[in-house]
Amino acid sequence: MYDVVIIGGGPGGIAAGVYAARKQLKTLFITENFQSQSTVSAGIENWIGTESITGWEFAQALEKHLRAQEGIEIRTGERATKIEELPTGGYRVMSEKGEYETKTVIIASGGRHRHLDVPGEEKFAGKGVVYCSTCDAPFFRDKKVAVVGGGNAGLEAVEDLLPYAKEVVLIVRSGELKGDQITQEKVLASEKVSVIYQALTQEILGEQIVTGLRYQDKESGEEKTIPLDGVFVEIGMIPNTEFAKGLVEMNERGEIIVDGKTAATSQPGIFATGDATDVLYKQNNISAGYGVVAALSAYDYIRKSA
User: Fold this and answer.
1) Is 278 a catalytic residue?
2) What's the CA gap between 276 and 36, in Å, rounded?
3) Residue boundaries of the structural domains of the chain
4) What's 2-112+237-305's CATH class?
5) Residue 73 CB-half CA count within 13 A
6) Active-site residue (options: 3, 136, 229, 275)
7) Fewer CB atoms < 10 Å away: N or C end of the chain?
8) Do domains 2-112+237-305 and 129-233 have the same CATH topology?
9) Which of 3, 117, 132, 160 is catalytic?
10) What do you get for the CA distance between the two ends of the chain, in Å?
11) What confidence tens digit (pLDDT) does each residue in 151-190 have?
């Protein structure tokens, strides 16, 4: 039996892994890969202690740090599918490739991109509908594109597009932007950018590729169409927590509810960190910090249960 099974290869999971190793816990680390939402970023400038680093460099550095630890068994290409309680205490973590018994679990499984779920989105995925601005912005040189989403993800997508696109239309569901003030100011200062507020996306238009977007003005109820060459969907994340449903308490968004002091979930011996949780700010530094908290809390739980 393991002392702890850690699920997820982002900053939260890796921080938990490093600290679990330092506490000499028998640790199993399960992840599909060592990528996080920041992996596709061209530049991360708020990781404390590093002025600037690309997303890929960031992911590689974290993986290297984890692999340098002794006492961790790492299984990549493996996705957790279920966690269940053992009648004798502890948990069984099931994946597509095996089953593992453990005293504690740390869930750091992150999230995935949320879709608009409107007509045309699935049809034109990869044909003008985009979910990764860092990856695909260069393909829209001198094109007119829309970014759907008024939070940090949407604003950062606009930033990614500015060196390439001829025009960027930011489509915001509410009456205001919700991202960082500094990023808002950068985006709004560009002559290339226009913002449509109170806009509810209805359909992505096209034949072989994207040619436009239809939206409804929430105030007037009027439907309008914008001619476009591409649509970047940046409306947030869905937490990867399906495998823990029915076991730990979650909010209406499927985020695991955690204690702010200990990273504990509603289930004794299960802890969580990062985008899979209800922690207010989804930031790498915060995920890593809560990963440390989760590992230390797991250590204390094991020690007190002995």
Assistant:
1) no
2) 12
3) 2-112+237-305, 129-233
4) alpha beta
5) 11
6) 136
7) C
8) yes
9) 132
10) 14
11) 998 999 999 999 999 999 999 999 999 989 999 999 999 9
